[in-house]
Amino acid sequence: MVLLQEPGTHERAVERLAASYRAIPRDAPVRLAKKTSNLFRARSATSAPGLDVSSLDGVITIDLQARTADVQGMCTYEHLVDATLAHGLAPLVVPQLKTITLGGAVTGLGIESTSFRSGLPHESVLEMDILTGSGEIVTAAPDGPHADLFHGFPNSYGTLGYATRLRIALEPTLPFVALRHVRFHDLEHLVDTLGQVVDTAQHDGVRVDYVDGVVFSATEAYLTLGTQTAEPGPASDYTGQQIFYRSIQHDSPEPKTDRLTIHDYLWRWDTDWFWCSRAFGAQDPRIRRLWPRRYRRSSTYWKLIALDHRYGIADRIEARRGQPPRERVVQDIEVPLGRTAEFVHWFLREIPIEPIWLCPVRSRDHWPLYPLRPGETYVNVGFWSSVPRDADGDPGAANRLIEAQVTALDGHKSLYSDSFYDQDQFWRLYGGDAYAELKRRYDPDSRLLDLYSKAVLRK
Q1: Where are the domains of the chain?
Q2: For the chain, which end, N or C, has fewer CB atoms within 10 Å of the first or last residue's CB respectively?
Q3: What is the C-alpha separation between 332 and 356, in angstroms, rounded?
């Protein structure tokens, strides 16, 4: 057992959290006193004090024999990965951005290139302590008196409570990841191959530990297949002048190969926030040389986005150019594997955004607030940009169009960004009666917002 905090540290942090909860007026909204967020939903301002989570940001213990870690709810994956890789271990699913917290990934949703074999981050949670809306701290596990909260917590976005401690499973790692970037000239072939990789965990006779993909157009798309290896040798570095997603592209009929350290593989998307850093000029070689390496990370770009949201900088620039304002389209959706090519073709025709990200996932259990069918392969499609909009029209027109198409294809979308569902449709898709029962049990006085108010009304 590796102890990473002094005895009593976690307990004192939990007591500070509970005291801050008690200090919030009963008629005031309960929110985290957090300086940063990976959510893209605006929310109404409040002058009420927030929950003090400032000391709940670390790893408590790592059990090397059991391959588990006890982690505080506000610990970022960056800190968690640093702690576990030191012992040759990693979380089963590591979301792509360093400042995503473990508690945030569980009460929201996270996904990565191990999700085809390990599901979503909450599926590697063994138990968790949760401060509920009633102010009580309960331990929720797959079985026992709070099993309903354990299964209903994912995708509740803090509307049932906040995780203070989570025990998660870990898996062993090797020092390097060997990559194969396989090009496809049509999306149907890519989807067929992706299904085979998910079913067999191999491609052309080589084991596949990680898989995701990038679509640049209907005739240029790639699967990136990763295999852990201990074989020594040089590794690429995409934290400097080279850009990871551009390294994927090639014209050869044979896969393009590459190697990264396991650390750099886990954070390969963070340096340029996938490809979103281009919006800030950070991919221009002239600017990139002057952009300090320590600021080439998603948290920096997110702060710039937050400033834009606050002051409307981008729309002001567009207006000076005589261009219409833009609609933000920042979403992740899941559709069944068999409908993926159909959705991507539709998206490329209707929504002028590229590239887009693909990531397969198989859920291993039933989670009522995000009901993917256990054992079925879905594909996450991620797209993060903006499109021109009619200044006098519906400001959410493109997002509404996407929501309708995803629903028509038997899919779901994550709730970290703007949503436009009406209440009846929302509750049909996201828990309905199951959520209402959890709310009655764990937040009987409605101290916390309900999920619709938080995700759609952005209160």
Answers
A1: 2-173+444-455, 176-268, 312-420
A2: N
A3: 10
Contact between 358 and 216 (Cβ < 8 Å): no
Spatial distance between the Cα atoms of 322 and 92, rounded to a whole number of angstroms? 48
**Phi-psi map region of 449: left, alpha, beta (phi>0 left; psi -120 to 50 alpha):** beta
The CATH topology of domain 312-420 is Alpha-Beta Plaits (3.30.70)
- CA-to-CA separations, 295 to 48, 270, 271, in angstroms, rounded: 32, 11, 9
CATH fold for the domain made of 2-173+444-455? 3.30.465
pLDDT tens string for the chain (459 positions)? 999 999 999 999 999 999 999 999 988 888 887 665 656 655 555 556 788 898 999 999 999 999 999 999 999 999 999 999 999 999 999 999 999 999 999 999 899 999 999 999 999 999 999 999 999 999 999 999 999 999 999 999 999 999 999 999 999 999 999 999 999 999 999 999 999 999 999 999 999 999 999 999 999 999 999 999 999 999 999 999 999 999 999 999 999 999 999 999 999 999 999 999 998 999 999 999 999 999 999 999 888 887 776 777 666 766 677 777 889 999 999 999 999 999 999 999 999 999 999 999 999 999 999 999 999 999 999 999 999 988 778 999 999 999 999 999 999 999 999 999 999 999 999 999 999 999 999 999 999 999 999 999 987
